[in-house]
Amino acid sequence: MTVNLPRSSLRAIAWIALAALALALPFIVLLTGQRASGTSFMWDFSMGLGFGALAAAGLQFVLTARFQPITRPYGIDIVYLFHRYFAIGAVALMLGHFAILYIWFEDALGDLNPLTAEWELTMGRIALGAFVLLVITSEFRKTLRIPYELWRYGHIALAIIAFGAAVAHIIGVGHFTAEADKRILWLGVAVSWIGLMVWTRAIRPFRLWHNPWRIVENIPREGGVHSLVLEPLGRGLKNWKPGQFVWLTLGASPFALKEHPFTISTPPEHGPKVTLSIKPLGDFSEWAVHTSPGAKAYLDGPYGAFSIDNDPEAKGFVMIAGGVGITPMMSNIHALQERNDPRPVILIYGNKDWESAHFRHELAKLEETLNLKVVHVLENPPDGWEGETGFIDRKVLADHLPEETRHWPHFLCGPGPLTDAAKSNLLAMGVPLTAIDSEIFDLV
Ligand SMILES: Cc1cc2nc3c(=O)[nH]c(=O)nc-3n(C[C@H](O)[C@H](O)[C@H](O)COP(=O)(O)OP(=O)(O)OC[C@H]3O[C@@H](n4cnc5c(N)ncnc54)[C@H](O)[C@@H]3O)c2cc1C
C-alpha cells in the first residue's frame, strides 16, 4: 500500500529524524570514546544522562532560532511546545546525572565551596542551577508575576550562562572527551550554538534594521482593536500565506528584543502592505494602538501555519474564534474573497457582548458576498438578541455544524479555555484530530 503523505508532513518527519540524530550524537561520542578505567555501569549511565541532557538542551537553540523551514510544517506554537517539553526533559536528565553521582559517587562531586572546589565541578553546578532556574521561571512566570520583558532578557542571560558553564564542565571534566577528536567535537557543538545565538541576536536584527517599514494608517475598529497598516520601505514579506503572523518591533531597534507577535489580518493578495489588528491588552499593545502614521516599524516573518492554504482540497472550512482570535480568520476569509473561492465557511465567533465583537460590520458585509455563515455567540447579549448566548459549547457546535463539515479543516483561535473546550467537543462530535488546528496567542 502506498501512503501519500503531504510534503509538509514529510518535512515535519524529516526534522524530527534530524532532531533524533542530534540527540543520539552525544551517546555515539560516549560509546566510541575512551572510557576511564574501572568505571561501573551506574557511573557510565550517569555520564550518558549528562550528555543526553546537554544534547536536548542544545536543541533549544535551534528550536528558538525561528528558522522558517523548521517552523513552517508545525506552526510556531508547536515549535514552542517542543521547546518547553524538551527543556523540561533536559533538566530531568541533568538532575538524574547529578542524583546518581550524589547517591553512589559522592566523593566525585568534590568540595562544594567554589573557592576551593575544582573549577570544572563548580561549572557543572552553575549549569545545573541555571537550567533549573530557566525552567522554573518559564513554567511559573505568571504565578511568580515576572513581567514578560524581564523574563525574556533573563531567559536569554540564563541560557548563555547555563550553556557556557555546561560546555566548560564537559571539557574540564574530560571523561569521554579526553581524546583530541572528542574535544574538537564538543567545541564544534559549542561553536554551533554560539553561531545560532549570533544569528538570532545579531545577524537577523541587523537584516531587519536594514529593511524598515512605515505605518501609513491607524484605523480604529469595533471593540477597541486598531488596525495598523504598514508599508515596506525596503523588501516586503516573501511568500506569506493567509493566517500567518509577524514579530513586530515598534518604537525600538530590532536589537532591543522588544518584538511582539501579531497576525497579519489582511491576505497576501493585499500585499505588499500588511495590516496588523491589535487589541490593547497590556503595556506594549496599549501603546501600539496609539501609534501615528509615519512611525517606523520592523517586521520579522512570516511565521505560522494557520492557513486555508494548508489543505487545497478542503471542501469547506470551520472557524471558531473568541475575541481578538478573529484576526487570523479575517485574513483567511479575505483571501477566499480575493480569490473568488466559493467554498463554504462557517465562523462561530464568541464574545462577551455585542460591542466587543471585532469586525462585526465587516463580517456582515462579507456574509453578503461570500459563502460565509457567521454565528455570533454572546455571553451578555443586548435586549432583543435572538442569536446564540453563553459560551461556544457542544450544543452551539452541534446546532451549526452539519454532519458534512466533520472532515473540513477546523481553525480554532481565542482564549485557552475556549479553544480547549471547542477541541474536545469537536473530537466528541467525530471531527478527526488531524482536522483541528489551533493557534495559541499566549506562547508563555
Ligand atoms: C502567533 C500569535 C499571534 C497573535 N496575533 C495577535 C493579533 O492579531 N492581535 C492581537 O491583538 N494580539 C495578538 N497576539 C497576542 C499579542 O502578541 C499579545 O497580546 C501582546 O504581545 C501582549 O503584549 P503587551 O505588552 O501588550 O501585554 P503584556 O501584558 O505585557 O502581555 C500579555 C501576555 O502576552 C504575551 N506576550 C507579551 N509580550 C510578548 C512578546 N514579546 N512575545 C510573545 N508573547 C508576549 C505574554 O503571554 C503575556 O503574558 C498574538 C500572539 C501570538 C503568539
Automatic annotation (TrEMBL):
Signal sequence region: none
Alphabetically ordered keywords of this record: 2Fe-2S, FAD, Flavoprotein, Iron, Iron-sulfur, Membrane, Metal-binding, Oxidoreductase, Transmembrane, Transmembrane helix
SUPFAM superfamilies, A to Z: Ferredoxin reductase-like, C-terminal NADP-linked domain, Riboflavin synthase domain-like
Superkingdom: Bacteria
Subcellular location: Membrane
Membrane-crossing segments per the record: 12-33, 45-64, 85-105, 117-136, 156-178, 184-203
Pfam families, sorted: Ferric_reduct, NAD_binding_1
PANTHER family: 1,2-PHENYLACETYL-COA EPOXIDASE, SUBUNIT E (PTHR47354:SF8), NADH OXIDOREDUCTASE HCR (PTHR47354)
Protein name: Ferric reductase-like transmembrane domain-containing protein
The species this protein was found in: Glycocaulis abyssi
